[in-house]
Write a sequence for this structure.
């Protein structure tokens, strides 16, 4: 039995510039997220629903776990149109459109209510989307990859001093690199798919990420200490190659967009539930867990000039848009 939108797709999908109706529209989507991450499972379900509702005429294949390369490689593929869609972290997008990384400013958001208010609507969200549009990308909603913590093999992180000299894996994010350098660590960019081996062989002493990501990558097998620093938030934008997206018929765009929105809602709910349960599961796997006071970390960053630097780099208008949701930063 056809879904409600399938009949609408028969005519438009046969018209230029798309293929004849006898051929399905085959598109690719890249993602750095592992198979077990809620972003992967919820998006896979959405693509199945799109495929079913269109009677197979829209066939989007998801390639998770960095199968299509690093995030920066997938950005290039998306911008060239080699792939039609991607799931791309805000932190790595900062290297393309600097404003895209602003949700990851250290200790900016106190929780999800101000975060989603900032990123789902309003001037900050509009500025980010417009910046990505300038690079030929169409941004949908952003999925949750959580507030980030530190996991290490050498020592727990109880104070900023414990980070000094620590070789820590970070994504290709200027904000995160700047954050850890300001606290005396030695951040290094390593592809997520290669992080387990890097930690196992001590190329890096630790990594920072959300608890579900720590679980999904299984790095707990080669690390000892989990410190709930909550130093930064990161999410992943669902992006489309702009010209490919604009070439789709309106009803096809509506169908895809509706299921992407539904996937984001399910993912956010699943992520919160998974995050709530993750600490207990990681303790059961042998990790030593501590929850340091965040105030000394914020104070150390303020004293280092971190907030002043990033206010200058983003510009006062963008920074004011951020502080509208977060309150004053670096005071």
């Amino acid at each position: 039995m056809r879904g409600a939108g399938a009949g609408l797709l028969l005519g438009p999908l046969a018209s230029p510039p798309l293929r004849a109706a006898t051929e399905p529209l085959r598109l690719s989507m890249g993602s750095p997220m592992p198979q077990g991450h809620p972003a992967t499972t919820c998006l896979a379900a959405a693509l199945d629903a799109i495929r079913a509702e269109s009677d197979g005429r829209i066939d989007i294949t998801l390639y998770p776990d960095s199968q299509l390369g690093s995030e920066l490689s997938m950005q290039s593929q998306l911008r060239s149109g080699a792939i039609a869609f991607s799931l791309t972290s805000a932190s790595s997008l900062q290297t393309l459109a600097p404003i895209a990384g602003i949700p990851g400013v250290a200790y900016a958001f106190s929780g999800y209510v101000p975060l989603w208010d900032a990123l789902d609507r309003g001037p900050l969200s509009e500025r980010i989307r417009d910046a990505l549009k300038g690079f030929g990308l169409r941004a949908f909603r952003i999925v949750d990859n959580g507030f980030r913590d530190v996991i290490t093999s050498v020592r727990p992180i109880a104070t900023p001093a414990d980070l000094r000299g620590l070789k820590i894996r970070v994504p290709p994010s200027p904000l995160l690199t700047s954050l850890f350098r300001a606290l005396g660590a030695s951040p290094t960019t390593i592809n997520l798919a290669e992080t387990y081996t890097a930690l196992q062989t001590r190329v890096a002493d630790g990594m920072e990420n959300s608890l579900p990501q720590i679980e999904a990558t299984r790095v707990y097998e080669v690390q000892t200490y989990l410190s709930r620093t909550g130093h930064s938030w990161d999410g992943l934008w669902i992006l489309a190659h702009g010209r490919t997206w604009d070439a789709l018929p309106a009803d096809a765009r509506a169908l895809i967009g509706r299921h992407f929105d539904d996937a984001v809602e399910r993912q956010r709910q699943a992520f919160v539930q998974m995050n709530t349960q993750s600490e207990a599961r990681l303790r059961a796997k042998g990790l030593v867990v501590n929850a340091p006071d965040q105030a000394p970390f914020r104070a150390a960053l303020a004293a280092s000039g971190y907030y002043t630097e990033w206010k200058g780099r983003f510009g006062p208008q963008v920074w004011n848009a951020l502080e509208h949701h977060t309150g004053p930063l670096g005071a």
User: Anything to note?
Assistant: Residues 250-284 form the longest helix (35 residues).
